[in-house]
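Memo to structure team: turn this sequence into structure tokens by end of day. - J.P.
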Amino acid sequence: MKGWVDLQVNGYAGVDFNAPGLTVEAVKSVTDRLAADGTEAFLPTLVTGDPETVVATMRVVVEARKRYAECERAILGFFLEGPFISPEPGAVGTHPVEWVHAPDLALFGRFQDAAEGLVRMVNVAAEIPGMPDFVRAVSAQGVVVSLGHQLATSPAQLEPCLAAGAKAFTHLGNGIPNTVGRHDQIVFSALVEDRASVMFIPDGHHLPDTMLKLYCRAVPLRRLVAVSDAQYPAGMPPGEYDVCGAHARLEPNGLLWNPARNCLVGATTPMAKMMVLLAERVGLSGDELRAIGHDNPLELIGGIK
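Reply from structure team:
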């Protein structure tokens, strides 16, 4: 592969993986557009939502992989970002609270069946009762479990899920309350946790430059994974959009946010531009960028199936 590998793509260029009515042609369109913008492989990412829509979307994407060689090469599987997350403000982010679900192996199995075994990663909240058993069972299936959209902060709260097999932190520094503890907080706990990769969004909006530098200096290179968290307004003009069933505003500078909840709702910056940002603002070399934006993502999910 010559381009970047993005493990978190909610949508792109007007194609929303989380809206009803997805078509095979739309999947092909977004795959081609991502490739043109430098992303050669990716995980369509499904947030918390109506299970019927999630299942339908998975079936359409699977069909696109069967029909088009480009889709089969580029689409590495799925990242299930919900629904096994915290429903609390700050942690839930822009995910619709009404569809948040307790850990449920039967529901996960339904999603995996629709995906024909291609759910490669699932995000969960570590503090939810019963989550360690869920993590253990899902990890045993070869699915990567990532921790995020949660209120767990301390190593003690994270340990049961890490010991059960969790291998990553989802967009670290985001999907958490705006006010966090001075010492007891998820960012510090994740930065020093050697068993799990740190996924982060270096788009210039989700994390300030000081945090980008901190991540890249404090975390061994092998544990860093850049993701775009792209939403379907990426590549679209500034304006008003409906994202995850809620109003969102895309500003001229690329910031995509929900004014009602005062939270970000994903990003609009493609991987290629984020790599330029990391080079300019953090000073990463070409080899370091290649690791963060290509090699490490593939290593985290176990390569190409």
